[in-house]
Amino acid sequence: MRSLLFVPGDDKPKLTKALASGADVMLLDLEDSVAQDAKQAARETTRYFLRDTIAKHERPRLYVRINALDTGMSETDLDAVMAAAPEGIILPKSTSGRDVERLDAMLSVHEADRGIADGRTRIIAIATETAASLFTLGTYQGVSARLVGMAWGGEDLSADIGSSVNRANGEFTEPYRFARNLCLFGAVAAHVAPIDTVYTNFRDLDGLRAECEEAVRDGFTAKLAIHPAQVPVINEVFTPNANEIERAARIVGAFETAGDAGVIGLDGEMLDRPHLTRARKLLERARLAGVHA
């Protein structure tokens, strides 16, 4: 996963258009982008779209963002969409690893009822949307084999803590950088993909690019998107380039040649085992993106 594109689940034209966006994952949304009185229509539109699309070979992975577990709507959402076997569920406002465990159990029941292979449906948790959730970002490790990613979000967090803005001069303010960093550490500790939040000004592609480059620098491997125009920028920045791949391959090769060495020299630089770990991670990202040196 590099790009994950939110699309309102009640808007069939946007859903159809998003198929050609190039996004790695489409996030069919039943939560924030759908008005309260349109929830049932969104469930039906999403279910029919999944049924019509899931068998296509050339398509993004299809995930559904359900409503939060404490809304009383999440089970109704799952009843509607699991019959069409989406590849994953996005869990918003996750408060701890226990919420993922709860969703895991719910999905197991739906899979069994519908003849879907046990554990097929993956989970991405949006794990920083309330103040309380920031204190539990270390609780996701080992909670579910379904969990493949953790994302952070600043908009709902802003509403929860009552801040007037979450950015100043285009940059996230300190409370939100704190949430971002904790999510990064929590995801890595849980051995799942750390996913950067949306860049809400979808017309500012230069600003998006800068934020993507910062996210890659810091260790994020994917980014949420809210508009198809954002997808090409995200895919480009989150795909290792030829120079990076070549450098990583040389580092791995040098360590292999050196045997069990803890430190090697390459191009006049001393490299130790953390450099090898980073090189292997980059090569794995390149492999998953289908890119070779």
From TrEMBL:
Q: Which domain of life is it from?
A: Bacteria
Q: Name one GO molecular function term.
A: magnesium ion binding
The answer to whether keyword Metal-binding applies is yes
Q: Which Gene3D superfamilies does the entry mention?
A: Phosphoenolpyruvate-binding domains (3.20.20.60)
Residue positions annotated to bind substrate are: R65, E129
The processes (GO biological process) annotated in the record are: oxaloacetate metabolic process
Boundaries of every HpcH/HpaI aldolase/citrate lyase domain copy? 2-228
Q: Which SUPFAM superfamilies match?
A: Phosphoenolpyruvate/pyruvate domain
Residue sites binding Mg(2+) per the record:
E129, D156
Cofactor(s) needed = Mg(2+)
Q: Which UniProt keywords apply?
A: Lyase, Magnesium, Metal-binding
Q: Name one Pfam family in it.
A: HpcH_HpaI
Which PANTHER family does the record match to this protein? HPCH_HPAI ALDOLASE_CITRATE LYASE DOMAIN-CONTAINING PROTEIN (PTHR32308:SF0), LYASE BETA SUBUNIT, PUTATIVE (AFU_ORTHOLOGUE AFUA_4G13030)-RELATED (PTHR32308)
Family note: Belongs to the HpcH/HpaI aldolase family.
List the protein's name. Answer: Citrate lyase subunit beta/citryl-CoA lyase
Q: Which organism is it from?
A: Breoghania corrubedonensis
